[in-house]
Structure formats: structure tokens, C-alpha cells
Amino acid sequence: MGGARGGPRGGRGEWLVEKATELGAETLQPLVTHRAAEVTPGKLGRWARVSDAAVKQCLSSYRPQVAAPLDVAGLVARVDSEESALVLVAHPTGARGASEVLEEYRASLGLARGERREGQQTPSVWLVVGPEGDFTEDELNLLRGARGAEVVGLGSRRLRTETAAIALMSLASSAMQDTDGR
Asked: What is the CATH number of the domain that holds 116?
């Protein structure tokens, strides 16, 4: 499961890296957007160290990749090249809830709750959350065009970027936990 998001300001990025690691993210993908804070090489190194500490704390054997920043078009190209099966873009305009889409995805894979996939490739799921101030309309349209993308809602409340990321990650982690063997 990969997570892409616009850079939160201040120390909230470190908190988000820690929590996403604990929830089982495989890739942490900073997004360069019109409204996102800059992600420097020093910040990427710090996030890798925070992720290492979170791996130890939660007794995981897997450390997520802290990837170099991409712009929205670059992210779309990446998920399209990986033939990601599902790309959830959290946005207030999402017509359907993330949990509904995740349950439909599980059903499309032929998985019932508690059923583990054996001998099959782990499905790819990307979770995308905008920066403070949200995506521009052009960025959102690019994301809508990604293979397997669906814009989803997270409820009626407006959430901070890091809260939305953790809410979406929690839903996806819970829905997909028995499909990846971790």
C-alpha cells in the first residue's frame, strides 16, 4: 500500500510518517503540488529515520520506502506504470465513501473477511491526500485520470491533511490487512 500526500507544514510530516509506518505503508510518496510545502532532501532523510524508529516500535519487519517527491503528473505516471489496481483520492467531492470502495475492491478480488490470499500477487492500493488548501482543480483532474482512481469521501467533516491521511490509511489497512501477509 502506497501513500501519497502534499507536504504538511511544520513537524506534522514526521508524525504522519510515524503513523503511516505503524499502519503498514509500503511507500511514502511526497507530492509536489501548487499548495504543498517544499520537501527538502534533509527532510526526506529525517522521515526515513522516523520511519526506522516506528518500525522498531511496532515490531514490523518492513520499513516503507520514503520516495523522492513527485508532482501530480509524475504520481499518475507511476501508478499507471505499476498497473495499480486501486487509487483512492481523498477529497470532499467524493461521491462514495472510502470504506464502501474498499469493500467492493475486496469483493472484486474474491476475498471474504478473514480470507487470506495465497500464491497470488498482493493487490496494489495507493492512497492520495491533498496538501493544506487542497488540490487545484487541474491536479484533481489529473488524479481522476489515473488508472483505477476513484475520488472518495471521508465523511462530512473537513479534515486536516494528516488527519485525512491517517483516516484513509486506517480504513485501507483494516480492509487489506489479510491480503498482504503482514
From this structure: 3.40.1280.10
- The range of the structural domain enclosing residue 154 comes to 2-176
pTM value is 0.87
- The answer to the question of residue 181 being in a domain is no
Is there a domain that residue 182 lies in? Answer: no
Q: Give tens-digit pLDDT for 73-115.
A: 999 999 999 866 799 999 999 999 999 999 999 888 877 655 6
Would residue 111 count as lying in a domain?
A: yes
Pairing mode, strands 65-66 and 2-6 = unpaired
pLDDT tens-digit map of 124-152: 899 999 998 899 999 999 999 999 999 99
Q: Is 95 helix (H, G, I), strand (E, B) or coil?
A: coil
Residue in this structure with the C-alpha cell 471474504, named with its chain if needed: 112
How far is 12 from 161, CA to CA, in rounded Å?
A: 9
Q: Is the dihedral of CA 33, 34, 37, 41 positive or negative?
A: positive
